[in-house]
Structures are given as C-alpha cells and as structure tokens.
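Hey,
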Amino acid sequence: MDFLSEPRSASWLARELGLKRADLEDDLRHLLRSARAAGHDIEIVPARCKTCDFTFAEDRLIKPGRCPMCKGTRLLEPMIGLRQAG
C-alpha cells in the first residue's frame, strides 16, 4: 500500500501496476475496503471539471468522461491516498 502513501490518480496506479484504468476500479474499491478494515484513513480528492468547477461524488474513483453540468471534457482525475490512522 506504499503506492498510496501520497494521493495518486487511478491512471498513475494503472500505469505502475501494468493494468488498464477501466480494469482497476473494482480492485481499487476492494483495496480501499480492506484498508479501512485495517485501520487506515482514506483520503479521496474528488474529480473536478476544469471549466465549470463541478465536483463529482467521492465514490467516483475513475476519471469521468465528461461533466454533467457543462458537458466539458477538461476534467481533473480523482486522487486517492491512504494514511495510517493514529
């Protein structure tokens, strides 16, 4: 879990693990559930539209295709990080 010691995007994790970003979402959800159970604090910075500043829900772990408000495609990916609770 050292990969997530500082916030990272799903794209970064997929590149590091040699996976496709779309294939990573289920594994990432499982990892986060396991990390919570092990006592880690989960930090999720939600995806955001660069055009209208719309913020997506925190449960969206993979970069969305377009903004539901302005239909723009200039989006910041969500960032995921773990910290040891303490």
